[in-house]
Amino acid sequence: MAASVWKGFISFGLVSVPVRLYAAARTTRISLHQLHKECHTRLRQPLFCPTHNRMVDRSEVVKGYEYEKGKYVLIEPEDLKKIEPESARAMEILSFADAAEIDPLDFDASYYVVPEAEGRKAYALLVKTMEDTHRVGIAKVTMHQREYTVFLRPYHHGLALHTMFFADEIREAPGFGDLEHMKLAPQELKLAEQLVSNLSEKFDLRKYHDEYQERLQELIEAKREGKEIAAVPEQRRAPVIDIMSALKKSLEAAATPTRERAAAKPGPSRVAAHPTRRRTAHRKAS
Predict the structure, then answer these.
(1) What's the CA angle centered on 91, arms 154 and 27, to 5 degrees?
(2) What are the CB-based long-range contacts (under 8 Å, 24+) for 279-284?
(3) Where in the chain are the domains?
(4) Cα gap 257→259, rounded to integer Å
(5) What was the pLDDT predicted at 46?
(6) Closest to 6 in 3D by CA, of 110, 141, 117, 97
(7) Is 276 exposed, middle or buried, given 0-12, 13-18 or 19+ CB atoms closer than 10 A?
(8) Cβ pair 99, 134 in contact under 8 A
(9) Partners of residue 112 on adjacent β-strands
(10) What average pLDDT does the segment 160-189 reach?
(11) pLDDT at 258
(12) CA 127 to CA 238: how far, in whole Å?
């Protein structure tokens, strides 16, 4: 079972809801370790004290802040406990905002907010109210020795929490959004809209995956078995010069799979009386 990363209360007005936070998503990567080339032994970062010229056990480690070169202020766990703000124990919703006003670029890490047994009714009331009003709660919470401003939003009949990037953390890129003087022909827009329409489909997160990690796994398996793995052919793409020609060719290419799927579908007369068969046939055809 997943471990919670924070435990406390959500409060709005005089209502308090006991909750726990669980990480909603984690990046998964194949880890490659550093090895000694001669003996293939894994290299590790030791806890070594140059003053005592010996390895140090983790129980001997303390935290410190370097205020001058070689001079530190020591910080004990009890010291950190003393300065914890109220948001270390309670998430007070400071305000609500229209969900449409929140830019996804402002979202950082995501968490599920799960109510404790005694707080389920108040939690359900908060979720339903936010769903009906299309509101997002703005709150503060302290965890991992940092106070975060967070968004609380309804998600699949529960609450999701997103830590927030602050305004000074959102970077700018030179030339980004500078399109005021770009002239677009109506025919170009029409063809581009057709292409977007042909490529549009219902979003399914399960369809997307990390091809590089899959190929890395194949490479590892091939090397374990003493096999060689073929290189992925490189597709060279030249800059688009003739946009109209590129759009027309793209439309033709996008329409071909659609025609193939349509030709593979069974006729209505063969499956009209069998809804189950129809779904199965469609799945095979796609």
Answers:
(1) 60
(2) none
(3) 6-26+83-167, 248-286
(4) 5
(5) 79
(6) 141
(7) exposed
(8) yes
(9) 22, 160
(10) 87
(11) 55
(12) 50
Instruction: Give the whole-angstrom CA distance, residue 210 versus residue 206.
Output: 11
87 contacts 140 by C-beta, under 8 angstroms: yes
Residue whose tokens read 């796994």 = 217
CA proximity to 155, closest of 278, 25, 246, 28: 25
d(C-alpha 52, C-alpha 60), whole Å: 13
Structure tokens at 222: 């091939």
The Cα 118–Cα 229 span in angstroms is 56
CA 27 to chain centre: 8
3-state helix/strand/coil string of the chain: CCCCCEEEEEEECCEEEEEEEEECCCCCCCCCCCECCCCCCECCCCCEECCCCEECCHHHCCEEEEEECCEEEEECHHHHHHCCCHHHCEEEEEEEEEHHHCCHHHEEEEEEEEECHHHHHHHHHHHHHHHHHCEEEEEEEEECCEEEEEEEEEECCEEEEEEECCHHHCCCCCCCCCCCCCCCCHHHHHHHHHHHHHHCCCCCHHHCCCHHHHHHHHHHHHHHCCCCCCCCCCCCCCCCCCHHHHHHHHHHHHHHHHHHHHHHCCCHHHHCCCHHHHHHHHHHHC
Domain 6-26+83-167 has CATH 3.30.499.10: no
Q: Residue 106 burial (CB < 10 Å; 0-12/13-18/19+)? A: middle
Tokens for 27, please give them: 């990046």
Of 51-60, 107-116, 154-163, the least confident? 51-60
Residue 262 confidence class, pLDDT cut points 50, 70, 90: low
pTM metric for this prediction: 0.68
